[in-house]
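FAQ: What does the model actually see?

It sees only this:
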Amino acid sequence: MKDNSKYQGIIPAFYACYDKDGGVSAEGVQALTRYFVKKGVKGVYVGGSSGECIYQSVAERKLVLENVVKAAEGKLTIIAHVACNNTKDSKELAAHAESLGVDAIAAIPPIYFHLPEYAIAAYWNDISGAAPNTDFVIYNIPQLAGVALTMPLFREMLKNPRVVAVKNSSMPVQDIQMFKMEGGEGFVVFNGPDEQFISGRAMGADGGIGGTYGVMPELFLKMDELIRAGKMEEALPIQNAADEIIYAMCAAKGNLYAVIKEILRRRENLDLGGVREPLYNLVPEDAAVVEKAVGMIDAAMKKYVG
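And it is asked to produce this:
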């Protein structure tokens, strides 16, 4: 059986990094990568929702991944989300990711047009075929993609030996159990919704990939440590604290990731820029939201991590 231990643990979803003119910042990407190495997370998920992938060009997404790989220096598991809304560009990104030696590629289903499941399977298999020596992760996020990973579609995809995992961001934790059971021994399922990390782990998730992990990795690392030690009850108050922080950050008028980047600037001296329009950047009245979230993170770190 294949060793999938490199996928088990805390894998933050990487944030888009921009310079003052709104272009991708190679320096910012490298600085954020080194930050994650320093924090001791298992890996990073590059080019997903928090990476603002649907608002970046193929060339920009290549630039981001190249700089992540460069700065990681082999110290992180790297999963590259390569889906575009057409097969050609997705295959180009998949081949590029494999050329860089990433651990896995991932893809959401095509969005906008409602495609039949055989077309979605063909899309995923075509992408996987462009990176024939690289693991493939199905990204199930029906609330944004508009289509769910059904069991018949999942079974069809399991015929592809490169399919090793599902990043499950659907809200029912039962989906995690179903994918684990159907996937069989060694198949990996990542918990997606950060607000129910320990619930997903209780249902069998091997680890998690999340968009808010990066602003408070210590809390999720601590939860993971406690869960692996069989101390689920001790992990629960940390989950509750993390959820309260997430809810506070979501109270801003600006986009959640704009809030996160400002918190990282304040707490970690990371300058990652803002978010790309049409995502909404911070407005002056968001300063109070940011300040509150910073205080909550500091307090939770002191209470639960030390």
